Amino acid sequence: MNMSARLPELIRAFNGPMTKELVLEPAKFGLGSLPSRTQPVSVAHAVCGFCSTGCGLKIHLDEKGQAINLTPNTQYPVNLGMACPKGWEALTPLYAPDRATTPLLHGEAVDWDTAMQVFCRKFEAIMDQHGRESVAFLSTGQIMVEEMAFLGALAKFGMGMVHGDGNTRQCMATAVAAYKESFGFDAPPYTYADYEQGDVLVFIGANPCIAHPIMWQRVLSNPNQPEIIVVDPRKTETAMAATQHLPILPKSDLLLFYCLAHWLVKHGHVKPEYIAAHTNGYEGFCEFLKDYAPEQHYASLGLSEQEFLKFAETIANGKTVSFWWTMGVNQGHEATRTAQAIINIALMTGNIGRPGTGANSITGQCNAMGSRLFSNTTNLIGGHDFTKAEHRAKVAQALDIPEDRIPQKPSLAYDQIVQGIEEGRIKGLWMIATNAAHSWIQQKRIREVLQKLDFFVVQDMYATTESAQLAHLVLPAAGWGEKEGTFINSERRIGISRKVSRAPGQALADFHIFRLIAEYWGCASMFRSWTSPEAVFERLQQVTKGQPCEITGIEGYDMLESHGGMQWPLRPGDEPGKERRLFEDGKYYTPDGRAKFVYEAPRAVPEPPDAEYPLVLLTGRGTSAQWHTQTRTGKSAILRKLHPAVLMLDIHPEDALALKIRDGQMVAVSSRRASITAQARISTTMRPGQVFLPMHDAQVNQLTLSVVDPYSRQPSYKHCAVRVG
Ligand SMILES: Nc1nc2c(c(=O)[nH]1)N[C@H]1C(S)=C(S)[C@@H](COP(=O)(O)OP(=O)(O)OC[C@H]3O[C@@H](n4cnc5c(=O)[nH]c(N)nc54)[C@H](O)[C@@H]3O)O[C@H]1N2
Ligand SMILES: Nc1nc2c(c(=O)[nH]1)N[C@H]1C(S)=C(S)[C@@H](COP(=O)(O)OP(=O)(O)OC[C@H]3O[C@@H](n4cnc5c(=O)[nH]c(N)nc54)[C@H](O)[C@@H]3O)O[C@H]1N2
Ligand code: SF4
Ligand SMILES: [Mo]
């Protein structure tokens, strides 16, 4: 087929006018006059494309169906009319001047035909010469479910790649590994109502005031005057709002939860009936706990006896206790076992499967959960296993693709792909909606590695990202709001987001870029029925049949829209609006239906502070106005006003005094990898011996050390040794 002849037609079709269906209801606003000059005539629904809270937004449209403003949706069951600054500013990044508007080959604008021919020729040549394992893709938790499934299917089944991972490795891999082993499936069990229903809420390595502000609003709606405990080395915004703060020493969480388990067993605060009926491995766990008498470990935890006992007693006395963890747990050298230590506590105290309980991992990106289930990276699409013949057969049938196109082994993990490039085994890389040259650990190394590639493609909304600047080929992508599809939020709610703005120039929705590649690669016949996001969604529903994440009960996008999204599982006949909490029947997804106690002795941190590098560097989110590598939020003048203009290093007054550092002084922060500059902010939110940098500045990951948890292969971003001054 002569592709270049068909191309204008294809692009027109892909980037065409917005559909009438978008105009869903007459405009109704309760917020007085709107700042925009044009009066909105209708409203479309979207789920926010930043964090995993998944707030519902109403997008105000002009008569052409173009977005002119937005307000949070008061009817949406997640946010009930609230949004954080990023949600309110969600449209602004779409109009940034540095949007990628044409494909760029070595920095020069080219048309899509040229870009597609180069893309296919280069990847084909590498694969012909070096085999299928010599190329890889890196996907994301920030494109639609239908898009990530298309990408995973196209790359692996269509193009024949074996390796593909995503930025969810930096983020959720630990929770995935922990849940799979403990529960038999990657299944965060909660619903947001649990924030409102418990009497004790424990946040471990999580700072929702900044990172999940609207989840935090749900906590504030809890009428039970709950005890809120924050386990975090820093006195974060969340810790300040809590009733108890446990400022443990960094990476002592595993020890803390073993000490807690020991204390609960010793004082009879466990639920023997629950343990006997629904779990395996408890006896061995009790035996293992002998070494964890709390009184022997207070110094290693950095806690006083009083702090520990208050914490333990609060949990023991709670009727409904929930445990919420995020990156302070997932990003560590023994992260998977730490997550499982939290799960163990919920199991032994019977705090699971009831309102206001649970061992609950909060996800990060808007579609991190979609990526876990449908990206076809670590798992075969739909939470299946590449190594199982029956799973391959089932997926092949549901997707109508030849079974022999499905790789029989899982992909290399992100860090192994990086290593593969470093060692010259991987020569071609396609990176979609992630900015590794800023966000990956130990940045100098990743930048050197990316520059070794024979062919490096970046598909992004902006041509200016740190990664796009290193790419041979940049493919311009439409962003949130410029395309349609679904996201899955932290409480497993599948929500729909509509197209409310036209992408600039030649930029195309990722969905259509994948269709174009399928055409040029010559595998379009495999995806003949993958014509629209909704058509793909229907296919994916079929794939989930019989899985814990089954969603065959959803009757199309309209049903999702009218119910304010739906939580998985939803099987035919299930009541659609009902809130879904997992494990209410005490049945887990393991072969015998029992959850498993998993445990292992704590290990020393890989890079402890020493005389030369005496401080521990913690990293994380800075403000609710900043999103990761700032490619989107950095484009909003309003959001820029809500965070410091320079990189701030938080340091305790004692350390500052010893180093003769004044507040506001520019200082060098050095690790064994690099030295960067930041402005000192003297703050008692830190403990002596620890400093904090937000991850949003591109310099920060120059300092971090490439260490991963052995089970999840998630990087340990939150611990390395540095010196200041
Ligand atoms: N504004 C904003 N919101 C976001 C994001 C964003 O970039 N900006 N990103 C989203 C994404 S993808 C994610 S994954 C989430 C992340 O959400 P969070 O995990 O809540 O955010 P972080 O700040 O990375 O880390 C949380 C806390 O872990 C603490 N910590 C560090 N080391 C340890 C330790 O050893 N033990 C314990 N217990 N705590 C420790 C840090 O001090 C920090 O306060 O946020 C999501 N929401
Ligand atoms: N030091 C330190 N480093 C960290 C962390 C930490 O706590 N500390 N946290 C880690 C975590 S949890 C995460 S999740 C990662 C995040 O790291 P990244 O994924 O690298 O961060 P983002 O800035 O969100 O990058 C997303 C990219 O996708 C582009 N994009 C947005 N929407 C679309 C779209 O629809 N289509 C396409 N094609 N592109 C799009 C954006 O412009 C941006 O370049 O960072 C990790 N890095
Ligand atoms: S809390 Fe998260 S989902 Fe809600 S508006 Fe803010 S960034 Fe968007
Ligand atoms: Mo994340």
Structure description:
This protein has 725 residues and is an alpha/beta fold. The protein folds into four domains: 20-95, N-terminal domain of TfIIb (Single Sheet); 104-171 and 366-554, Rossmann fold (3-Layer(aba) Sandwich), CATH 3.40.50.740; 174-361, Dimethylsulfoxide Reductase, domain 2 (3-Layer(aba) Sandwich), CATH 3.40.228; 615-724, Barwin-like endoglucanases (Beta Barrel), CATH 2.40.40. 32% of the residues lie in helices and 16% in strands. The protein has 27 helices and 27 strands. The strands form six sheets. A seven-stranded mixed β-sheet has the order 6-5-17-16-15-7-8, sandwiched between helices. The protein has a six-stranded mixed β-barrel with strand order 22-26-23-25-24-27. Strand 7, helix 4 (145-158) and strand 8 form a beta-alpha-beta unit. It is globular and about 75 Å long. Mean pLDDT is 95; it is low at 19-36. Bound molecules: ligand MGD (2 copies), iron/sulfur cluster and molybdenum atom.
Q: Which helices and strands, and how do they pair?
A:
Layout: H1 3-14, E1 25-26, E2 42-47, E3 56-61, E4 67-72, H2 85-88, E5 104-105, E6 108-109, H3 112-130, E7 135-139, H4 145-158, E8 163-166, H5 173-183, H6 193-197, E9 200-204, H7 208-211, H8 213-220, E10 227-231, H9 237-241, E11 244-246, H10 253-266, H11 272-278, E12 279-280, H12 282-288, H13 298-301, H14 305-317, E13 321-325, H15 327-330, H16 335-348, E14 358-361, H17 368-374, H18 389-399, H19 414-422, E15 428-432, H20 436-439, H21 443-450, E16 455-460, E17 473-476, E18 485-488, E19 493-497, H22 510-521, H23 533-543, H24 556-562, E20 566-567, E21 595-596, E22 615-620, H25 637-641, E23 648-651, H26 653-658, E24 666-670, E25 675-682, E26 690-694, H27 700-703, E27 720-724
Parallel strand pairs: 7-8, 7-15, 9-10, 9-13, 10-11, 12-21, 13-14, 15-16, 16-17, 22-26, 23-25
Antiparallel strand pairs: 1-2, 2-3, 3-4, 5-6, 5-17, 18-19, 19-20, 22-27, 23-26, 24-25, 24-27
Helix pairs in contact: 1-22, 3-22, 4-22, 4-23, 5-16, 10-16, 18-23, 19-21
Bound molecules: ligand MGD (2 copies), iron/sulfur cluster (SF4) and molybdenum atom (MO).
Iron/sulfur cluster is lined by residues 48, 50-51, 53-55, 79, 83-84, 86-87, 212-214.
